[in-house]
Amino acid sequence: MSMLTASVLVPVSGPSAAPAPKDTLVIVSEMGPNGLDTMVPTANDHSRMVTWHAYDRLVSHGEKTLPDGTISYDAKVMTPELAESWDISEDGLTYIFHLRKDATFHDGTKVTAKDVKWSFDRAIAAGGFPTIQMAAGSLVKPEQFSVVDDYTFKATFDQVNKLIMPDLAVPVPVIVNSELAKKHATAADPWAFDWVSRNDAGGGAFKVETWTPGQQTVFVRFDEWKSGPLPKLKKVVWRQIPSAGTRRALLEKGDVDMSVGLPPKDYAELAKDGKVKVIGVPVQNDLVFLDMNVKIPPFDNPKVREAISYALPYKEIFSSALYGRAKPMYDGDPSTPYEPTWPVPIKHGQDFEKAKKLLAEAGFPDGFKTTLSFDLSEATVREPSAILVQEALKKIGIDVSLEKVPGSNWFAQMASKKMPMVIAEFYGWLDYPDYHFFWTYYGGNNSVFNTANYVNPVLDKEIDTARFTSDPAVFKASMQKAVDIVMTELPRIPLYNRYADYAMQKNVEGFEYWFHTHPDFRQIYKN
User: Sorted alphabetically, which Gene3D superfamilies does this protein's record hold (predicted)?
Assistant: First the structure.
């Protein structure tokens, strides 16, 4: 398989534009993949979107219907994908997966257990995000994985972990065509990260036909796919268009089938207008928050952090920046304990007098100067939110400068742990509160998402207990302690749980919400 060539851009506006055929879906978005390999630590979220469709995983999830009628994946039900079946030992430490014998990669090569082992070894070797994601399911060392025969793969574990199976269904432990990739490996790049970042080495339901970075990705159906029902769509065109206004206009004119990543204001107006379908789902295990770096004064002072929690303009952010397309995370019930789940709403709203009192008690009666940073690629929502925070904190004497970090630098800035305050987000692919804590608070990871730079060995112990126990009572007690710790220490202040919003033509059917929040082309069809 040769390197992907630049594509001819599919027109979506102008005199030549016309509705796409029934077997073709045209999606417009501001963002797109920065590469085609999910295991590269710098891969962005839209690289996961590519991987989801172009690669198989061993297992997947069932589906369920949400209260509003939207079809969603079911986090509690595991279903076959590349693995037809599996056996788990009584002690929960050995997993044996029986692979489909008719599955092939896109180049026709048969998929075997050696591809699975090589792929898992590769994800662990990648470092950064992929390695931590694998570790969430206790997939931590190559010695755990073995090839029993061509179609039988075995994984062994040192301890029971309820996240093992769901962690196999996320867009990291995907099955790569090992022989194809190894042909392009070098001494400096033994896992062929560079080549796979620019080429399709998968066996999923769709092949990447062309990829023009920053402009367009074209998928075509892989007619020999055996790991699920053959999709009804034969082609999907993912176009990147920077202007939200243009993306909305194209949808309203009927020139495209779906628009993702529009501002909340647009989704609110489109939903009210009713000419297109709008689906909004609260993202599972999601929290948009304000982090204060506890290693940078004065945020090392808990009373300063608490003071800021009383000054934040929660309601204004919800109405003016989100247009109600979110679930509030403030004004919780102060008379009840925090629930042993996540996220939980803070137990108050805005109270300037309380904020000023706490700031004075902390030794800052006249306030101080600091910086609030946000991801410029999320500026549609994050910039008005930051301005509202800036204005509110000024009322208690805190002079805030805004730092707009280019999206291409955002992960590096987070990893540096040098930003005093940030507005950021984390949503967990696995819908478990201990998973969210593992990614964002666990000191042993020093995760990029811990922009509060908060490390607490007592908290780490509770997170570990919750992760590895099989006793519901022990889990509940540990999560209760963990939630109490972070909501008392307040390195992170909850703001809201955002919606995943999608707008589409009324003839687009089969939409299914997934934890990664991207449309699943395998389910969608057009009437």
Answer: Dipeptide-binding Protein, Domain 1, Dipeptide-binding Protein, Domain 3, Periplasmic binding protein-like II
